[in-house]
Design goal:
alpha+beta; globular
Length: 182
């Protein structure tokens, strides 16, 4: 983690030993609002002494404590408004070029989903936990992964025009970050 956790932050952690990441919005008071995986929808969540009393579930949107969210994995913060080169080098699904809304708006959007004022599935066509968190942060879904590839490709292309060796190095970095660090 590169900085202190603040309410309104988009956080994520590994799942299934790094096979994929799970995302949510930290709303303060040690609690996280997230779009749960389908597997958890059917059964009740296991008892937790920290969030047991505060746990709220609306469909697939749930409010749980950080411990329940992390399931023993390391907490990471998803950064917004990062410079293009940082965005190119970092693994996709860990940061965005787009800017975050003010924290109180981010938290309010997450609460609206939790309270059923917004519907992730039908109103916003949000399909996964990352979409949900990005929507809360920016007000639109966007696809970080797709735009990441497009931005990276254009940066590499631009660098290649100026200096083929730089372009190659950037491409190498990008490929490494895409496939080895995942
Ligand atoms: Zn808990």
């Amino acid at each position: 983690m590169s900085r202190r956790l603040e309410p309104g932050d988009h956080i994520y952690c590994k799942r299934k030993g790094g096979l994929y990441d799970h995302h949510g919005i930290y709303v303060g008071d040690y609690m996280v609002i997230h779009l749960q995986g389908k597997a958890k929808k059917s059964g009740p969540l296991p008892p937790c002494q920290i969030c047991g009393n505060k746990r709220v579930i609306n469909g697939e949107i749930a409010k749980v404590c950080i411990d329940c969210f992390l399931e023993g994995e390391t907490l990471e913060i998803y950064d917004y408004g990062v410079p293009v080169l940082t965005f190119t080098i970092r693994r996709s699904g860990t940061c965005s070029r787009r800017h975050s809304k003010p924290p109180y708006e981010v938290i309010q959007t997450a609460i609206d989903f939790l309270q059923g004022k917004r519907s992730a599935r039908y109103d916003m066509l949000i399909n996964n936990c990352e979409d949900f968190a990005i929507f809360c942060k920016t007000g639109s879904k966007g696809s970080a992964q797709v735009s990441g590839v497009l931005v990276a490709t254009s940066v590499i292309a631009a660098a290649s025009l100026i200096c083929p060796a730089t372009g190659l190095a950037l491409a190498g970095n990008y490929v490494l970050s895409k496939f080895l660090r995942r």
